[in-house]
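User: quick one - fold this with heme C bound?
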Amino acid sequence: MNRSGWKGVVLTSVVAITVVGCSQGSQTDSSQGESNETITVDAAKAEASYQSNCMGCHGQDLEGAQGPSLQKVGSKYSAKKIETIIQGGIGSMPAQVSLDPKERKNLAGWLAEKK
Ligand code: HEC
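Assistant: Sure. C-alpha cells for the protein plus heme C:
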C-alpha cells in the first residue's frame, strides 16, 4: 500500500439529480419529438392517458389484469423503453397508437417512476 504523496481524495461524485418538476402546466412545450432529456411528468395527464389506453389490460391500479402488473415497471424499464413498448407493442400487447407522441412520452415518464 503506497498511498503517501497522493494528496488525492478521489471524489467520485455521481450526482444524479433527477428533478421531476410538477409544473402546473399552462406552458405546453412544443415539438419536442424524441429527446429524452427533459421529461416533466404531468401525473394527472398521465393517469388520464393510462385510464383510457392501458387500464383495461393493466388494471385500475397498475396491478395487472390481462397484461402484467406495471406497479414496478420503472425498475425494469427506462422511460425510453416504455415509450417504445407503448409505441410498438411487446409480445402479445398491441401497439398503442392512439397516444400522440407527447402523451406517450409523458405516460412513459410517469410509469418509469413506478418502482
Ligand atoms: C390489449 C391489452 C393491452 C393494452 C391496451 C395495453 N397493454 Fe401493455 N401489455 C399487455 C400484455 C398482454 C403485455 C405482456 C406482453 C408480453 O410480454 O407478451 C403487456 C406488457 C406491457 C409492458 C411490459 C411489462 C413487462 O413487465 O414486461 C408495458 C411497459 C406495458 N404493457 C405498458 C402498457 C401501456 C403504457 C399501455 C397503455 C398505453 C398498455 N400497456 C396497454 C396488454 C396490453
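One thing worth noting: Residues 53-54, 56-58, 66-68, 70, 73, 76-77, 82, 85-86, 90-94, 96, 99, 107, 111 surround heme C (CB under 6 Å).
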